[in-house]
């Protein structure tokens, strides 16, 4: 039997990376990896838009990655975008082109979700040790800090500073002098100060650096005799002297500096040096794992039905004191109706998202019962939800917002027939179970043409449930306002 293949694509702000692995039981065996220095962050303009040259570099790279991924099933590939795609105002338009070039969906993940996945990748590559670890990952546009124990991340943070963005901002021509280096270091120290009370030495036992910046700094310090092992404060001080002496990163003559890292070295150095100063780090070891490995292990968890998203939903249900029995009633009926409306074509991911939306649709009650669906929608859109991408959180948020009340508020948010069917299914399930009891459901059949919902109920049920009948009549008016007709008959 052929072993399954999984693939992860990391659309970083500096480099795009592709990692392919074979699954054997609960282990991953890396088969292939590709990396291209796209420097997406360098293409972010002052008005926070991704410029055309950066877009073209990215699309050309993704076309090459897409050729390598050709033939893999959709569920075996996960592609994520990070900081540059979080901040670019034209990211939605670019992502449409990017997905077409790659041939697979691309999720933009939040900073703390990126941190969680980085830690998962790093921790899987390290031997088990007692004590807490600090993991620092300097990306192209953001830097993640994580404290964890074993495979469990305990604290997650993402700061808006990266080796590309800082190099472009403070060292645009590659020149290095006391003034711009100090300016970059102070800017980074100011960012790190915000988390110093929780991430400084004393909160962890050993520090690790993942990412290209950490690895190249380690190589430079070790190969030039500035450090006997890893990144050290003393070694960074010696490199700092050499950088200032060279005056230009392109004239820096040190061993271990690869050509593709030259343009981003000053920014990466400033951030690393600032972290050492503010967090009291004396030594940091390079880590092998990173975001792409974390993506693969997270995907492996889904493959083995150990989905972090399910864990998060259960945690949210406990945190917001959800009525578990009511959530289960609504979830079961919503899934049944959605499959009816879509003629059995409800995909696994769509089914999962609908189920999670049903389980979480009442969390806003903990804020206020009045307009609770709006509170729920806001929480789902903005909370840190480990395992979920921003796109998935947005989908949950829209489902929650649309599950009750007027539909005018979601005009323009619902385009695909599957989205309309999910909303209708969730609205009907919440409506039918409004009394929060175990209603004796009638036999029912549903159809959806794309412009018309048709629901057939067992004869006599509406007469026995006049309140539900009145609510269904009101529901027809709501959908008519969106240009969609709804028919409910007995037969």
From TrEMBL:
GO terms for molecular function: exopolyphosphatase activity. It catalyses: [phosphate](n) + H2O = [phosphate](n-1) + phosphate + H(+). Pfam families: Ppx-GppA, Ppx-GppA_III. It is an enzyme of class 3 (hydrolase). Its EC number is 3.6.1.11. GO terms for biological process: phosphorus metabolic process. Residues 20-302 form the Ppx/GppA phosphatase N-terminal domain. Keywords: Hydrolase. InterPro entries: ATPase_NBD (IPR043129), Exopolyphosphatase (IPR022371), GppA/Ppx_hydrolase (IPR050273), Ppx_GppA_C (IPR048950), Ppx_GppA_N (IPR003695), PyroPPase_GppA_Ppx (IPR030673). Residues 309-475 form the Ppx/GppA phosphatase C-terminal domain. NCBIfam families: exo_poly_only. Belongs to the GppA/Ppx family. This is Exopolyphosphatase. It comes from Sideroxyarcus emersonii.
């Amino acid at each position: 039997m052929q072993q399954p293949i999984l693939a992860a694509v990391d659309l970083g702000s500096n480099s795009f990376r592709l990692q392919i692995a074979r699954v054997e039981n609960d282990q991953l065996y890396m088969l292939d990896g590709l990396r291209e220095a796209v420097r997406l962050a360098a293409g972010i303009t002052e008005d926070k838009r991704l410029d055309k040259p950066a877009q073209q570099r990215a699309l050309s790279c993704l076309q090459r990655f897409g050729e390598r991924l050709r033939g893999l099933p959709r569920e075996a590939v996960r592609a994520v975008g990070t900081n540059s795609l979080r901040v670019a105002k034209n990211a939605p338009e670019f992502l449409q082109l990017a997905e077409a070039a790659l041939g697979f969906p691309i999720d933009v993940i939040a900073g703390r979700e990126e941190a969680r996945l980085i830690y998962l990748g790093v921790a899987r590559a390290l031997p088990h040790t007692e004590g807490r670890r600090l993991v620092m990952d300097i990306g192209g546009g953001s830097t993640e800090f994580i404290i964890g124990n074993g495979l469990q991340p305990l604290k997650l943070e993402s700061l808006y500073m990266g080796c590309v963005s800082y190099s472009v901002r403070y060292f645009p021509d590659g020149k290095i002098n006391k003034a711009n280096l100090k300016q970059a270091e102070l800017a980074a120290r100011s960012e790190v100060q915000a988390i110093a009370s929780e991430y400084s030495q004393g909160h962890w036992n050993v520090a690790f650096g993942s990412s290209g910046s950490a690895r190249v700094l380690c190589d430079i310090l070790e190969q030039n005799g500035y450090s006997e092992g890893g990144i050290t404060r003393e070694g960074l001080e010696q490199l700092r002297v050499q950088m200032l002496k060279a005056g230009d990163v392109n004239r820096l003559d040190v061993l271990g500096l690869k050509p593709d890292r030259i343009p981003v070295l000053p920014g990466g150095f400033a951030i690393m040096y600032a972290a050492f100063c503010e967090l009291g780090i004396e030594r940091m070891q390079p880590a092998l794992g990173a975001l792409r490995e974390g993506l693969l292990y997270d995907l492996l968890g889904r493959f083995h039905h150990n989905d972090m998203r399910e864990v998060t939903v259960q945690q949210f249900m406990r945190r917001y004191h959800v009525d578990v029995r009511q959530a289960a009633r609504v979830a079961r009926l919503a899934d049944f109706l959605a499959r009816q409306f879509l003629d059995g074509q409800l995909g696994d991911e769509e089914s999962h998202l609908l189920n999670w939306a049903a389980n979480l649709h009442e969390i806003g009650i903990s804020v206020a019962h009045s307009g609770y669906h709006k509170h729920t929608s806001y929480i789902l859109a903005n909370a840190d939800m480990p395992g979920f991408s921003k796109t998935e959180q947005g989908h949950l948020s829209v489902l929650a917002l649309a599950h009750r009340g007027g539909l005018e508020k979601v005009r323009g948010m619902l385009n695909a027939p599957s989205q309309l069917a999910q909303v209708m299914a969730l609205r009907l399930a919440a409506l039918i179970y409004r009394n929060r009891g175990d209603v004796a459901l009638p036999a029912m059949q549903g159809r959806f043409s794309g412009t018309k919902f048709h629901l057939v109920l067992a004869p006599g049920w509406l007469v026995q449930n006049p309140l539900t009948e009145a609510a269904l009549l009101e529901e027809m008016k709501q959908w008519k306002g969106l240009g969609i007709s709804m028919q409910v008959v007995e037969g």
